[in-house]
User: Fold this.
Amino acid sequence: MDPRHLKQAIIRLQALDDRLTHKIRPSSRTTMTRPSTERLEEELRHLAQYSVELKEIVQLMLAGITNQPPADSPGG
Assistant:
């Protein structure tokens, strides 16, 4: 195990959570109107960014567990 990779993954996961989780979490309030196209596009961008970063973090964690360099990881 490589504790450096695991620590980096934990730090990145916390940063991702702080930055985007509140933007992709379903709203507790329900509205009777449909969201605008712009709003849907913005939410889709947030979800895509979250998904890509989460994939990179999982790769970093797996690299830490298997003691291999992370694949396609920025700065890794």
Notes: The chain has a mean pLDDT of 86. The CA atoms of residues 1 and 66 lie 6 Å apart. Helices lie at 3-24, 37-66.
